[in-house]
Write a structure and sequence with these properties.
The chain is α/β, with parallel strands linked by helices and about 400 residues long. It folds into two domains: about 130 residues, Alpha-Beta Complex (Aspartate Aminotransferase, domain 1); about 240 residues, Aspartate Aminotransferase, domain 2. Helix content is about 40%, strand content about 15%. The chain has a seven-stranded mixed β-sheet with strand order 2-10-9-8-5-3-4, with helices on both faces. The structure holds pyridoxal-5'-phosphate. Pyridoxal-5'-phosphate (PLP) binds next to helix 3.
Length: about 400
């Protein structure tokens, strides 16, 4: 008999736990999306969401999952046959590459080992070699959710500048925005892609394109087919506080609340909180004698930690034991690391005791599933959190 009393622990790296405040905001009557109350709400929301991206420029909101915003970024700026440079950080980079291919773009992948982030030097070398400037965009995933590796966007920006290459820079921040420091304007990102269901603490269903002036300029000559995703109509109607088609009204109520929560806590405090929980998690993993998938400490993700199983042990069987016994969902291994890793989501609406519950469930699950490990991971995390407490 499965244990269903108490709260389910949703510790996958997205969708994340939705705070009660956000749930209550969503639970309001749907309003006329062409009426004055809606216009008032969306004008202030469209202004405040910019703070989360650290931009003064336009942020477009789509009623779609993150995949829609991936497509929107490409179809608004590029033309059929354009070459785009991508980097194989993991499954999400692979999916974006496949999407670009289906749009008839020439998508080029720099191979990676799923344990490192984007190598800025490799980007620099490839761009320097592209004398004819055939590459129209460099697309990267900031936080690769399949591996728990965070790439260094500022260094990739610097590599593009060093090569004096005109390519657009597009960054997927679906699992980093609102969890890991991100600066759309300062890093001169041309299109930032984001989604609602990870660091923004909302249910799935909204996604975003933050755009630069250069991207807007590129959109004027872009020839890929677009209609639903078209920026021009969206920007024209957003300017008055409205949308060209019915927006996801109730998710926008939730977004209003989530943005307020992030700004009340302060973005820098939000990032520090995520850094702390990630560090506590890694200390637990180390004490268990297990291995973090990410090999480069300066690329550790603060949103999630992917943990390698000892050889010959199934990550999925372990996750099943945790779900059956403790009503907690952990992230599975995707594609090349299927059944080899499990992922601990520690992003979004999350605190110390939720983390301790999560780590306790994992430590007990390792025992139940017969995975070789040492005890003491929970203790190591507790000692760290105790020291980090402000007293
Ligand atoms: C979740 C995720 C996506 C996919 O978004 P959907 O909402 O499932 O379409 C893309 N990229 C990254 C980095 C993600 O974490």
């Amino acid at each position: 008999m499965a244990n269903t009393s108490g709260r389910h622990f949703l510790q996958i790296p997205g969708p994340t736990n939705v705070p009660d405040r956000v749930l209550r905001a969503i639970d309001n009557p749907t309003m006329d999306h062409r009426g004055p109350a809606f216009g008032q709400m969306s004008r202030s929301l469209l202004a405040d969401i910019k703070k989360v991206f650290k931009t003064d420029n336009h942020v477009i909101i789509y009623p779609a999952s993150g995949t829609g915003a991936w497509e929107a970024a490409l179809v608004n700026t590029l033309s059929p046959g354009d070459r785009v440079l991508m980097y194989e950080t993991g499954q999400f980079a692979t999916l974006w590459l496949n999407l670009a291919g289906r749009l008839k773009l020439e998508a080029e992948f720099v191979p990676g080992d799923w344990r490192h982030g984007v190598d800025p030097t490799a980007v620099k070398e490839r761009l320097v070699a592209d004398k004819a400037h055939e590459i129209k965009a460099v697309c990267m995933v900031h936080n690769e959710t399949s591996t728990g590796v965070a790439s260094r966007v500022a260094e990739v920006r610097a590599a593009i500048d060093w090569a004096k290459h005109p390519a657009l820079l597009m960054v997927d921040t679906i699992s980093s925005l609102g969890s890991i420091d991100y600066r759309h304007d300062e890093w001169e990102v041309d299109v930032t892609v984001a989604g609602s269901q990870k660091g923004l603490m909302l249910p799935p269903g909204l996604s975003f394109n933050a755009i630069s002036d250069k991207a807007l300029e590129a959109s004027k000559s872009s020839e890929l087919t677009k209609s639903f995703w078209a920026w021009d109509e969206m920007l024209a109607t957003n300017a008055t506080g409205y949308f060209p088609y019915t927006p996801a009204t109730n998710l926008l109520y939730g977004l209003r609340e989530a943005v307020d929560m992030l700004l009340e806590e302060g973005l820098e405090n939000v990032f520090a909180r995520h850094d702390k929980f990630a560090e506590a998690t890694r200390r637990a993993v180390q004490a268990w004698g297990l291995e973090v998938l990410c090999l480069e400490p300066k690329e550790y993700s603060s949103s999630l930690t992917a943990v390698l199983m000892p050889e010959g042990h199934s990550a999925d069987a372990f996750r099943q034991a945790v779900l059956d016994n403790f009503n907690m969902s952990l992230g599975n291994g995707l594609n090349k690391v299927a059944d080899k890793v499990f992922r601990i989501g520690h992003l979004g609406d999350f605190n110390e005791l939720m983390l301790m519950g999560t780590l306790a469930g994992i430590e007990m699950g390792l025992g139940i599933a017969g995975v070789p490990h040492q005890k003491g991971g929970v203790d190591a995390a507790m000692r760290y959190l105790e020291r980090e407490a402000t007293g």
